[in-house]
Amino acid sequence: MRVPIIAGNWKMNTTVREATNLVSEMRPLLDQIENVDKVICPPFISLAAVKELIRGSSVKLGAQNVYFEEKGAYTGEISPLMLAEVCEFVIIGHSERRQYFNETGEMVNKKILAALKTGLKPILCIGERLEENEADRTEEIVTEQLRSSLAGVDYPSGLIIAYEPIWAIGTGKAATGEQANETIGFIHGKIAKLYSDEIAQALPILYGGSVTAANATEFMQQPEIDGALVGGASLKATEFVSIVKLTSQIRANLSEES
Predict the structure, then answer these.
(1) Distance of CA 21 to the CA centre of its chain
(2) Residue 246: which domain range?
């Protein structure tokens, strides 16, 4: 079984002081939970401070975005070389980046290639809009997003995929466990066709979209879902820890049954 991953995307929330307070509250509790990879993705300004706070712990660090050039006259951007000194993971292609900042499949692809070249582990976000879901175009949309995002990626070592139906992000309306499991199973199948069965079996795919401690069990019990990319709930220490703990318990039970 793939090791489950619970990643917290803090988005544009928390000052440096708030971020360090949140990490200080979560770290000792998260360190007690085994068999789950725990990743937190604070804003850029807090990465260095958070890195020091989690040094020596089981908590891993990620960024929320990256630019595809290593350096240059790109005011306001952060390069993969800069991030590689601070964190291990980076979220790429989040629907909010695509929607509000007009990120195209080509831009996402450049970011994926740049991150992999630098040794960062991308968390590639894909997912369909509500009207696309209702038109039964989910498989078509995620297939196109995979194709464009992974163009030129010969071997996706370190890649993580997060399936995030756009209609479920920040709306309180999550997909059902069965819906998410079916789509993530489809994505695993597409990865097998793009690369190999071996790579598909090793590549973790998370679910994201209004995941909370109240509904986490429904998702983590599904065989194709390897964890969650958590938004708002990751800003509450007890809520995020609960999701991680539930995931650990469920996977332990599934391992015993198998």
Answers:
(1) 23
(2) 5-257
Name the residue type at position 172. Answer: G
Q: What span, in angstroms and rounded, lies between the C-alpha atoms of 150 and 258?
A: 33
β-pair type (89-92, 227-230): unpaired
What SS3 state is found at 42?
coil
Number of domains in the chain: 1
Determine whether 94 is an active site residue: yes
Whichever domain contains 170, its CATH number is 3.20.20.70
φ and ψ at residue 8, rounded to 5 degrees: -105, 120
Tokens for 105, please give them: 């499949």
Helix (H) or strand (E) holding 89: strand 89-92
- Can you state the angle between helices 105-118 and 138-149, rounded to 10 degrees? 50
Please identify which residue in the block is written with the tokens 């909370």. 212
Taking the CA atoms of 255, 205, 127 and 231 in sequence, report the sign of the dihedral they define: positive
Per-residue pLDDT of 5-61, as tens digits, reads 999 999 999 999 999 999 999 999 999 999 999 999 999 999 999 999 999 999 999
Q: Which member of 94, 96, 128, 188 is catalytic?
A: 94
pTM for the full predicted model:
0.96
Decide if 106 is catalytic.
Answer: no
What is the C-alpha to C-alpha distance for residues 177 and 211, in angstroms, rounded to an integer? 11
Closest C-alpha among 82, 65, 35, 13 to residue 220 = 35
Q: Which of 164, 188, 218, 239 is catalytic?
A: 164
